[in-house]
Amino acid sequence: NAGVTQTPKFRILKIGQSMTLQCAQDMNHNYMYWYRQDPGMGLKLIYYSVGAGITDKGEVPNGYNVSRSTTEDFPLRLELAAPSQTSVYFCASRQGQGSTEAFFGQGTRLTVV
Amino acid sequence: GNSVTQMEGPVTLSEEAFLTINCTYTATGYPSLFWYVQYPGEGLQLLLKATKADDKGSNKGFEATYRKETTSFHLEKGSVQVSDSAVYFCALEDSGTSYGKLTFGQGTILTVHP
Q1: Is A75 on the interface with B (CB under 8 A)?
Q2: Nearest to A105 by CA among A51, A39, A42, A27
Q3: Are B104 and B91 in contact (CB under 8 A)?
Q4: CA–CA separation, B49 and B103 (whole Å)
Q5: How far is A25 from A78, CA to CA, in rounded Å?
Q6: Are the Cβ atoms of B41 and A100 closer than 8 angstroms?
């Protein structure tokens, strides 16, 4: 049971480059999320999705885009990378809200130089 | 808006010591409360949860009680082990239609020495 799989694990980008962080889950969860984790700051929500074709902004969406064409996949797109986007990115999924557990991927450590 | 505040870290303890990590929150309504743990190089995992006032969540020797009167959800363990070394996050989910979105505290790094 793979759970939530993120790729790549590490990446270095130059300022102005673009990239897509991949996220896939095999638990048939409707809800998926992208968070970023900055040192000493906890996790901040970037975007979320409640099902295929439905996405919405979280707390810190600027500089990012998402799509959700299938239940399994929820890629995060960075356009015109900036040093402020240096962070660790986590994808997560949940069956629903309330007491259900959120399952997290192992994270992608991104450095923009 | 919602917010979660955790005690300042890092926390360093000897094996078998008592652990408390404080967590307080601000939210409207009656949120669900969670503790997540992040071991080195891994994603976050659910440690325990509580969904209403006075509920006690427990798992792997850790406990936390949902205290609405003090808006707190402090994490405790009677005797820590080296394997408990990790980062601990307190989190809340708002009541109502939240779509499962979580608000996290800043995390507390715990290091346990033999």
Answers
A1: no
A2: A27
A3: yes
A4: 14
A5: 20
A6: no
Residue written as token pair 């033999």? B114
CB atoms within 10 A of CB B68: 12
Beta strands in chain A (DSSP E): 4-7, 10-13, 19-25, 31-37, 43-51, 54-57, 64-66, 76-78, 87-94, 102-104, 108-112
> CB–CB of A31 and B102 under 8 A?
no
- 8 Å CB contact between A20 and A28: no
Each residue's pLDDT tens digit in chain B (114 positions)? 889 999 878 999 999 999 999 999 999 888 999 999 999 888 899 999 999 999 999 999 999 999 999 999 999 999 999 999 999 999 999 887 788 899 999 999 999 999
Contacts A105 to B, Cβ<8 Å: 43
3-state DSSP assignment of residue B12: strand
Whether B114 contacts B82, CB under 8 Å: yes
Residue A50 in contact with partner chain B when CB distance is under 8 A: yes
Burial of A7 from C-beta contacts in 10 A (0-12 / 13-18 / 19+): middle
